[in-house]
Design a protein that fits this description.
Layout lengths: L4 H8 L2 E8 L12 E6 L4 H4 L1 H8 L11 E4 L2 E2 L6 H8 L7 E6 L14 H20 L2 H5 L2 H12 L3 H11 L14 E5 L37 E5 L1
Parallel strand pairs: 1-5, 6-7
Antiparallel strand pairs: 1-2, 3-4, 3-5
């Protein structure tokens, strides 16, 4: 992993220039100016948009504010999808900045999960980490970590601290030399159509020790640094 540190940094610091605009039907006391951010691809919308929320709440009455949610061209954005995944699924062919609409009412119950606090995001993230380690190490690595290690991993992501995150994440990326690799490569397949795809178990090596390839899929992005990879199929 040491030799790949420059690549890991480039992935970590990938950003998407984004313009947030308040939905036209939201009631405001004065005109709401757009808000611009460079969004980290490896994070989650509800984790990095506190400034967006505060910006638009300044022009709204308190009684008109409820749970914030986001949409792009009519599609509600799932907060539990990494930002880079959302962009690649919905807007990769669009011109930048990415234009996201902000809502404070009419929450789309059928399309989105509620996200009342950052604790919910943390629980989702750690669930993904545990799922990936179950495939790679039979959960041995994550179970041997202390609670403070789990917290450091999460805080590294939450606060966009590369070194803090990777000090713990490197343990999840290692395996004993005698095992010649992970049991399975953890990844999740997404389609732009939203149709669910069966999740195969992919071993890193074939019985004849040939490297597996995914030559019939287009790998657009691998997120969470193979904590749980992401494949997009169009």
């Amino acid at each position: 992993m040491t030799d790949d540190k420059d690549v890991l940094r480039d992935v970590w610091f990938g950003r998407i220039p984004t313009c947030f605009t308040l939905y036209q039907d939201e009631i405001t006391e004065r005109e709401a100016e757009p808000y611009y951010l460079l969004l980290p691809r490896v994070s989650y919308l509800t984790l990095v948009t506190d400034k967006v929320k505060k910006h638009f709440q300044k022009v709204m009455r308190q009684e008109d504010i409820s749970e914030i949610w986001f949409e792009y061209e009519g599609t509600p954005l799932k907060w539990h999808y990494p930002i880079g995944l959302l962009f690649d699924l919905l807007a990769s062919s669009s011109a930048l900045p990415w234009n996201i609409t902000v809502h404070f009412k009419s929450f789309p119950e059928k399309d989105l999960l509620h996200c009342p606090s950052k604790d919910v995001i943390e629980a989702h993230f750690m669930s993904c980490v545990k799922e990936a380690d179950a495939l790679k190490h039979k959960s041995q690595v994550i179970n041997e970590m202390q609670k403070k290690d789990h917290k450091q991993l999460w805080m590294g992501l939450q606060n966009d601290r590369f070194d803090q995150f990777w000090a713990i994440n490197r343990k999840l990326m290692e395996y004993p030399a005698e095992e010649n690799g992970f049991r399975y490569i953890p990844f999740r397949i997404y389609q732009a159509s939203g149709i669910l795809v069966p999740q195969p178990e992919i071993e890193p090596m074939l019985p004849v020790v040939e490297v597996q390839s995914l030559n019939h899929w287009t790998i657009v992005e691998v997120l969470k640094f193979t904590l749980l990879g992401v494949l997009l199929i169009f």
